[in-house]
Amino acid sequence: MSFHQEKKKHVAVCGGGLVGALNACYMARRGYKVDLYEMRPDIRTVKVVRGKSINLALSCRGREALKRVGLEDAVTKYGIPMHARMIHDLTGRRRPILYGTKDQYIMSIDRRLLNEIMLSAVEKFPDVEIHFSHKLTTCNFETGEATFENEQGHKVTKQFDLIIGCDGAYSAVRKQMMKLSRFDYQQTYIPHGYMELNIPPNSQNEFAMEINYLHIWPRNEYMMIALPNLDKSFTTTLFMPFEMFEAITTEEKLIQFFKEEFPDALPLLGQEELIKTFMSSKALPLITVKCHPYHVNNKAVLLGDAAHAMVPFYGQGMNCGMEDCIILDDILDAYDNDFSKALPAYTKKRNPDAKAICDLAMYNYIEMRSKVNTTSFLIRKKLDNLLFKIFPKTWVPLYTMVSFTRIGYQEAIQRREWQDQVLTRCLTVLGVTGLVGLGVMTYQLSQNYDHWSERVQNFLSRFGIVY
Ligand SMILES: Cc1cc2nc3c(=O)[nH]c(=O)nc-3n(C[C@H](O)[C@H](O)[C@H](O)COP(=O)(O)OP(=O)(O)OC[C@H]3O[C@@H](n4cnc5c(N)ncnc54)[C@H](O)[C@@H]3O)c2cc1C
Ligand SMILES: Cc1cnn(-c2ccc(OCc3ccccc3)c(C(=O)O)c2)c1-c1ccc(Cl)c(F)c1
């Protein structure tokens, strides 16, 4: 190696899920030597992958992250655009509300396909190796050593310049960090769980509902969403308190519940299939995780759910984790790959935004759980869109800032707080004005009560109504 040729950085990416697979592409693209460790077998060879949502919503931040490593088109060609939300009310009536202009749409993407595309992309880079069925067990943040256990229980320890924890909400890398002093950690399980159901194609083998929509059944205490799949089905996710899942103990109770709460969805889900899926599945938990810092020394850093797991009520967990890859990439450029400077800068830059979106997702959960039924959902969204049309520069709906721009999450929320204050003031003024108007009208009526009373009686007497 010549004097001027620096030793190639050697990094371990722990976790080959949505963020880890993408980050391995980022690290390989930087010319690093990359070892990607994934505790599961290669999902490209496994028949059924159990667990998480079968599809998810890809929006601007995730697309930008894919674009940077040349994967945006490879992924979006399998995506289904969702230009609007379709709100389903209790009568079965459906009302669409556009997300914005024609180029402002979120995409429904098959989770497994997305992961497979990124894993296959990783393999195309030189000096990259993927180790499936290798679970990280311990790591040393002084030496950069990491130990992995394979399915035979065989352990292997290697030393790296950087250990990148992309191992999800229950991260082993983060668990190691928690042993260190001054590492802040907070987790919350919410009382709601989720269960995936399926709306198959109809009898003509076509989509059973409008295709390019995020279907939402907002019911306060519980809610349901459906995202379209390429096979013309809809992956339908029911969010409900665990105690409600547990209270539905018989087929009759289940069918009765859906007849009352989701009458239009029941025939689409199919009673038999609904019973079979619901009675054989367990609702899965939803957790939010916040921690600080995201790095240790110049040896380890957390990305994705390992750093900031959030409840899925804003459709941003993956998008945020993918954007983490952009943020770290930019900072490594800014500090010329000097991990001792880049890692603290990454924590400083990313932690406030990640915490903000975790809080927003939780806020939206609380909002939707308590104050959002179809009417209020429609009013809020239509008002948002109207104000956006009138004040396009100042009134950008929060969902638009979050899903269709790369405005920092924290800034987006701060701007929204301003909007909320303005809206509250407007509604208060309108409310006060309205009340004053009502008061004046009532006063005038009371001053001429006899006159008005006689006119009303004469009018009603024409129809034989005498009071
Ligand atoms: C119901 C639901 C709906 C969602 N919908 C959306 C949505 O619409 N849009 C969106 O943006 N996000 C959504 N999300 C969030 C999204 O799924 C996560 O944010 C995303 O999967 C995080 O990716 P990740 O790679 O950080 O973690 P994960 O996807 O959890 O991947 C972690 C990987 O690490 C591996 N691993 C774990 N431990 C180890 C170990 N010790 N050693 C080696 N490997 C290990 C795991 O096997 C896994 O492959 C949703 C989540 C849920 C639960
Ligand atoms: C998967 C995915 C992708 N995006 N979104 C999403 C999230 C929030 C939204 O609004 C915030 C709001 C709605 C109602 C009242 C206040 C704020 C909107 C919207 O505006 O359409 C869309 C979801 C999603 C995920 C879970 C549930 Cl339960 C859900 F309903 C939607």
Automatic annotation (TrEMBL):
Job description of the protein: Catalyzes the hydroxylation of L-kynurenine (L-Kyn) to form 3-hydroxy-L-kynurenine (L-3OHKyn). Required for synthesis of quinolinic acid.
GO molecular function, one term: kynurenine 3-monooxygenase activity
Family the entry assigns: Belongs to the aromatic-ring hydroxylase family. KMO subfamily.
Name listed for the protein in its UniProt record: Kynurenine 3-monooxygenase
GO biological process: 'de novo' NAD+ biosynthetic process from L-tryptophan; anthranilate metabolic process; kynurenine metabolic process; L-tryptophan catabolic process; quinolinate biosynthetic process
Required cofactor names: FAD
Keywords assigned: FAD, Flavoprotein, Mitochondrion, Monooxygenase, NADP, Oxidoreductase, Pyridine nucleotide biosynthesis
Pfam annotation, one family: FAD_binding_3
Residue ranges annotated for the FAD-binding domain, each copy included: 10-359
Subcellular location: Mitochondrion
GO cellular component terms listed in the entry, alphabetical order: mitochondrial outer membrane
EC numbers, comma separated: 1.14.13.9
Gene3D superfamilies: FAD/NAD(P)-binding domain
Catalytic activity: L-kynurenine + NADPH + O2 + H(+) = 3-hydroxy-L-kynurenine + NADP(+) + H2O
InterPro entries named among the record's database cross-references: FAD-bd, FAD/NAD-bd_sf, Kynurenine_monooxygenase
Keyword Nucleus attached: no
Highest taxon in the source lineage: Eukaryota
Pathway note: Cofactor biosynthesis; NAD(+) biosynthesis; quinolinate from L-kynurenine: step 1/3
